[in-house]
Design goal:
about 70% helix; 10 helices; 2 domains; Four Helix Bundle (Hemerythrin (Met), subunit A); elongated; single chain; Arc Repressor Mutant, subunit A
């Protein structure tokens, strides 16, 4: 067992910590879709030894965040344009159903949504891409919780996590979309304040469908990155 670490509670925490760090780096775009992750280099970047990183890789392969190619190693999962379109469709469908069965929104939630959207707007012309994406997800999570549908909530959250690395790329390439999204958020908030749920649902369907319109541009972005790997 030379070089191996004992399998105990402390080791389990190291594995979980490594997995959490890699998830975050994928989410914020530091580990890009299609990027080759070598165990030794990843361990060095995380300040970990190779063994917990190796086990973390197995967890992330099971979660479909990494893919393992025999004799080639581990790569950050790269979605095809069709898969990206399918994920957009799933999110549209799930969010539309959650909106259809949404209950009344407490005033404190409207206030919180307004605060989150204000912070998004304050970051539009900055390099805080990951923070904008994170805030957008928080905004939508509050909306998802308006319907008491825990199974659907879990599924749409999982879909959003698959979409997140590409949302970061979209936000980098098309920052004006973030500006437009913040304006759409204000319209959603106006409908909720007025208790006009029919308008809220119609606005939300349009808002979440816009992501699918950007898939073509994102495909072009990923193709350009492959041609110029120095950008990665």
């Amino acid at each position: 067992m030379s070089g191996e670490e004992p399998v105990d509670g402390g080791y389990g925490l190291k594995v979980q910590n490594a997995a959490d760090q890699i998830r975050h780096k994928i989410a914020v775009g530091e580990f890009r879709p299609g990027m080759h992750l070598r165990q030794d280099q990843t361990a060095l970047a995380l300040g970990q030894s190779r063994v917990p990183v190796r086990e973390a890789f197995k967890i992330l392969v099971a979660e479909q965040l990494l893919i393992h190619h025999r004799n080639r190693g581990h790569f950050v999962t790269e979605l095809t344009p069709r898969e990206m379109a399918d994920i957009c469709w799933l999110r549209e469908s799930l969010e539309a159903e959650l909106a259809r069965t949404a209950g009344r929104i407490p005033a404190r939630d409207i206030e919180r949504l307004d605060e989150i959207n204000g912070e998004i707007e304050s970051l539009i012309d900055t390099g805080a891409v990951w923070r904008r994406v994170e805030l957008d997800e928080r905004f939508h999570e509050i909306l998802w919780r308006l319907a008491d549908r825990p199974v659907l909530f879990h599924e749409v959250k999982r879909v959003a996590e698959r979409q997140r690395p590409y949302r970061v790329l979209m936000s980098e390439r098309i920052p004006e979309r973030d500006r437009a999204a913040a304006a759409e958020h204000r319209e959603l908030l106006d409908a909720l304040r007025q208790g006009d749920f029919a308008r809220y649902r119609a606005l939300l369907v349009v808002h979440i469908s816009r992501a699918r319109e950007l898939v073509g541009l994102l495909e072009q972005d990923l193709a350009e990155r492959k041609e110029d790997p120095g950008e990665a």
